[in-house]
Design a protein that fits this description.
Blueprint (H helix, E strand, L loop, with lengths): L1 H10 L5 H19 L7 H7 L12 H20 L3 E2 L2 H9 L5 E6 L4 H16 L5 E6 L4 H6 L7 E6 L2 E7 L5 H14 L1
Parallel strand pairs: 1-3, 2-3
Antiparallel strand pairs: 2-4, 4-5
Helix pairs in contact: 1-2
């Protein structure tokens, strides 16, 4: 049956050398895949080839493990304080315009390459200015109203807000953008 089908395909108008090769490969691989790989399908054979699992944690190591969990929890709390916030239209009024500290907002989109390069810069600034200033992002695809309201024509565009007012604006990804943003936030904090 397979050879009859292959002969019919080979003589048809759509037969091309690459297509014929593909069909021949499929005819060889599919029956093998359906029948299975002899000797490797039984569970005992597969388990025998796996490396041994590490031994369970002993009682003496338990206090160290608890300390590691405690320090990890502290790291998560400090990271949460320094995290870049995702703003939405609903949260923008209170979180940005009503903030008592400076707020740096990155207008971006997931499909934008330079925007992806801005993420680590914003993360670094969030860590550096944790508790002093807020770093956030607005996805213009999800929040087109905010993008329109602030005349976002290119991305990434970063706006610095102080007391609910835009006091500075950067469009694009300049080579020294991190230093420019750092200087602007420091200057705003000193006022």
């Amino acid at each position: 049956m397979i050879s009859t089908w292959y002969d019919t395909f080979r003589r048809s108008r759509c037969a091309r050398p690459l297509a014929g090769l593909l069909i021949a490969m499929l005819l060889l691989v599919v029956p093998f895949a359906i029948s299975g790989c002899p000797g490797k399908t039984d569970v005992a054979g597969v388990e025998a080839e796996l490396p041994p699992l590490p031994s369970p944690v002993e009682e003496a190591e338990a206090p160290e493990a608890e300390q590691a969990v405690d320090s990890a929890g502290e790291a998560e709390e400090s990271a949460a304080e320094a995290a870049v916030v995702d703003f939405t239209t609903a949260s923008f009024q209170d979180s940005v315009l009503g903030a008592s500290t400076p707020v740096l907002v990155d207008f971006w989109a997931p499909w934008c390459g330079p925007c992806e390069k801005m993420h680590p810069i914003m993360d670094g600034l969030a860590s550096e200015f944790a508790g002093k200033a807020i770093m956030g992002r607005v996805d213009i695809d999800d929040e087109p109203q905010l993008a329109s309201e602030y005349s976002i024509r290119a991305i990434p565009t970063v706006l610095l807000f102080s007391n609910g007012t835009v006091i500075d604006r950067w469009e694009g990804l300049a080579p020294d953008i991190e230093q420019q943003l750092n200087n602007a936030i420091t200057k705003t904090l000193s006022q």
